[in-house]
Amino acid sequence: MRAVLEVVDLEVRRDGRPVLDRLSLAVAPGEVVAVLGPNGAGKSTLLETVGGMLPAASGRVRVAGRVATVLQTPGLASRSVRANVDLAQAWFGVPRRQRRGRTEAALLALRADHLARRPAAALSGGERRRVHLARGVAVGADLLLLDEPFAGLDAETSRELVADTATTLREAASAVLVVLHDRADAWALADRVLVMMAGRIVADGAPDALMKAPPSAEIARFLGYDGEVRIGDDVVLTRPAHVRLDPGGELEGAVRSVVRLEDGARVEVATPRGTLFALHPDADLAPGEAVRVALVGGVRFPVAPGAGR
Amino acid sequence: MTFLWQGLQQAWHLIATRDPYLWGLVDVTLRVCALSTGIAILVGIPIGLGIGLGRFRGRGVLVTLANAGLGLPPVIVGIVLAVLMFPQAPLGRFHLLFTLRGVYIAQTALAVPIIIALTISAVSDIAPGLIAQARAFGARRHRIALLALREARVGVMAAIIAAVGSGLSEVGAIAIVGGNAEYSTQTLATAALERVGAGRYADGIAIGILLIGLVLIVTALLTVLQFAGGQRRVGRSS
Hints:
heterodimer, A: Rossmann fold, CATH 2.40.50.140, 2 domains, 8-stranded antiparallel sheet, 17 strands, B: MetI-like fold
């Protein structure tokens, strides 16, 4: 099947400095692809270049059809919500007779239909984000690019919007490329996750597969593997779900810190082989308390040459 | 205070008797104001939008020049234009000096920078990200310009009001280029200046009162338009 987006050996420079470095990727029809990466990795630059807002120094970007970008800042015109969604379609070139129906469908899909007549200036931050996303959905692009669509929202509002967006995106365009800051959002939205570092794609795969088998220790740490112990000639990286406080566990250690959570506590355990983090149902542990730890998962990588113990 | 009282009495008398000289002044003043502001709108708003929305090298220099244009001394503009309109000068063959056409040009030269500079300023106040988002959805230039104009309409109307105010009350450039000739190029403002220069203070005050009344009426109408337009447009798309 022909890709909706094909990027080959793309290089982009800002102020003479390379931001994207011979980057290649393809997005197939029907895919929702999330792009993750630390600050400065080049995620937004990739979106801007694919969206035609930034020129490439070299390489090739091919989009089968039309592309629309929903920028990070939800800039709305000082008119009603409905007029804003209509206006986005006018910019995109949607025929006038189709606009009203698309506007209503997009607002309904993002559960913003009750806001249709409200002036944009009267919306809350979460409502502005909903309307902003509805504009992207309404234009009906072949490739929809989203730049951190949930930025700046409180946790609850973000969770609700992610849930509504997850069901809407697949019908919004032939394919979607979305830059995200929060890993959890990527897992909720995407069929495929790309991890970018220093202008290159360093990991590419289905979310679960990527999480189970990150290709390198650096990527594992980025994906939330926060525990690290050295066993033999390997380093074992763990997520809290891989670590259990167990009197029969194979590693001995001492509690270094306890952070209370709504459902228990996040416990940092210092062992002679490294530091691990575990979720514990009770916050009844105290710093300095001796514990034993069992590893029930994690990923193993050879120790990098020259790394100390 | 006597001058002021006499001035008020004379102003009332001029209005009540429908003095033809007075109405001639009002006619010239309104024509100069309307034509210069109209041309300044046609020329200045597109330039202001182009500079305000543009992303090109040298934009900062153009913004600075536009702002400097706000402070153009009218007398200097008048002298430069008058020199250019002398018979042997580049504009001499158009016979503009001491004519109403010359006055239109002088006032337009003062109004255009006002419109440009204040339009740039108005456009810079548009909601962050809105113009960039329109570009990201593929909006064509004319749609972006229309969007910017609508979003910045209060500021753009302020620019127009400032140009109208200048058009109604300008003295220096108009008097130099037009020669302040009665029944020809004289406006309310230059007539008041002439009366005061001749020591006829009460006459000057009377014309000044009429001029202030005209400025108040015109700017009040434009101010109503400035804010009423925004209310009507909520709920409409382009």
